[in-house]
Structure formats: C-alpha cells, structure tokens
Amino acid sequence: MIAFDLPVRNYNDLVLRRKALNGVFGGHSPLYLIVVFLPPLKEKWLKQEEEGIYIKKQAFWFYPKNEDKFSQNAKTKRIFVSVENKVNLEFFDFVFNLNPD
After folding, report:
1. Are 14 and 63 in contact (CB under 8 A)?
2. What integer pLDDT is reported at residue 22 of this predicted model?
3. pTM to 2 decimal places
4. Counts for the chain of helices (H) and strands (E), in that order
5. Backbone φ, ψ for residue 36 (5° rounding)
6. How far, in Å, are 8, 17, 24, 33, 62 from residue 36 at the CA level?
7. For residue 21, what are the CA distances in angstroms to 5, 51, 66, 101?
8. Residues 6+ apart with CB under 8 A from 93
9. What CA–CA distance (Å, rounded) separates 11 from 28?
10. What is the pLDDT along the chain (101 residues), one digit of tens a residue?
C-alpha cells in the first residue's frame, strides 16, 4: 500500500462521484485518481520523441469504496493506494467498460 495525502476537496469529489454512480445523487461517470511517483530529474522518467512522449515510471489508480464517507478534515485526507492497482492496458479496458466494481 502507498500512503498518499490528498487534498480533502479532491477526496470528497471522488466520494461524491462514487455515490453518484451508485445512484445516491444521480449521475453516471466514475472518477478515478491516478498517482504517478516521479523522481526529481525529468530525464529519469520522461522521454520526448517525434512520435510522442513516453513516461517510464509506474502509475497507480485509486477509487473509493462504497462505504467510504466524505471527510470532515480541514486540509488533507490520507488514502491508501494498492500497489496492485497499476495503470496498465487492463486498467483502461476496465475503466472504459465503465465497470468499477
């Protein structure tokens, strides 16, 4: 697990969209957080070529659970992102099929 301090407003937006997807507030679009950990030197993780830009480090996704509640914290909410939740081709298949559970 990766501990990540997220601004409380962003966390609450994620929870709101989860509840909206479940029909609590009406709505249909899930909202995922993608966290990319990058070293300070961009040369270590970023490569730009004519065909495109390549990012060499891993990214992980977070999606609140059904039971997650809005945070009343003043500034941040600590979340825990599973290292199993890698952003890869399967993630995009999963997301674009709109099947978050």
Report:
1. yes
2. 64
3. 0.74
4. 2, 6
5. -120, 125
6. 19, 21, 30, 10, 11
7. 24, 37, 10, 11
8. none
9. 18
10. 889 999 999 999 999 888 877 665 556 677 889 998 887 787 778 888 898 887 777 889 999 998 899 999 999 999 999 999 988 888 888 777 755 55
pLDDT value, residue 75: 97
- Return the structure tokens found at 81: 């992102």
**Residue 79: CB atoms within 10 Å:** 20
User: Which residue in the block uniquely carries the two structure tokens 């937006």?
Assistant: 13
CB count in 10 Å sphere of residue 33: 18
- Give the max Cα distance, the chain: 47
